[in-house]
Amino acid sequence: MTLLGGFHHVKLPISDVHKSLEWYRRVLGLDVAIEFVEDGVLRGVALTDAGRTLMLALREEPDRAAGWSGFDPVALAVPTLHALRAWSDHLDELQVRHSGIAEGSVGWLIGGITDPDGIEIRLYTQQERL
Q1: Cβ–Cβ under 8 Å, residues 12 and 57
Q2: Nearest one of 113, 118, 120 to 19, comparing CA atoms
Q3: E strands within the chain?
């Protein structure tokens, strides 16, 4: 059997590419890696973090996006509890609602971060609880 090397990307349906792009840039600090233009119109983007450790794709599909509202398909890795605290401060500064830091099944997490379509993004430590 051939080994897998992790995720290449995760794709989320969104209702408005421009609105979502602004949110993911502002809140999560992601930058555009690829633009998907069809018939001269931007229909999707692939976003990455500064270290290029992840790729998150957004695809304009309003009907599908509506069905994902309230669902939490993605948990982004944060290396330590200290880094998670910095994320909590960042979200507070931006006045982005979130659950605060909670104990998770393995480490700690911040939930309740919702994008413009109501899709929940979680931040989860890779560090185990003490």
Answers
A1: yes
A2: 118
A3: 10-14, 31-38, 41-48, 55-60, 74-78, 101-103, 108-114, 120-125
Spell out the domain ranges in the chain: 10-125
Q: Regarding the domain delimited by 10-125, which CATH topology (the fold level of the hierarchy) does it fall under?
A: 2,3-Dihydroxybiphenyl 1,2-Dioxygenase; domain 1 (3.10.180)
Q: Which residues pair with 57 in a beta bridge?
A: 11, 46
User: For the segment 3-19, what is each residue's pLDDT rounded down to a tens digit?
Assistant: 888 889 999 999 999 99
Q: What is the pLDDT of residues 37-96, one digit of tens each?
A: 999 999 999 999 999 999 999 999 999 999 999 999 999 999 999 999 999 999 999 999
- Neighbour tally for 58: CB within 10 Å: 28
Read off the pLDDT of residues 85-126 as tens digits, 9 standing for 90 and up.
999 999 999 999 999 999 998 899 999 999 999 999 999 998
> What's the CA gap between 51 and 103, in Å, rounded?
26
- Among all chains, which residue has been given the structure tokens 């270290």? 51
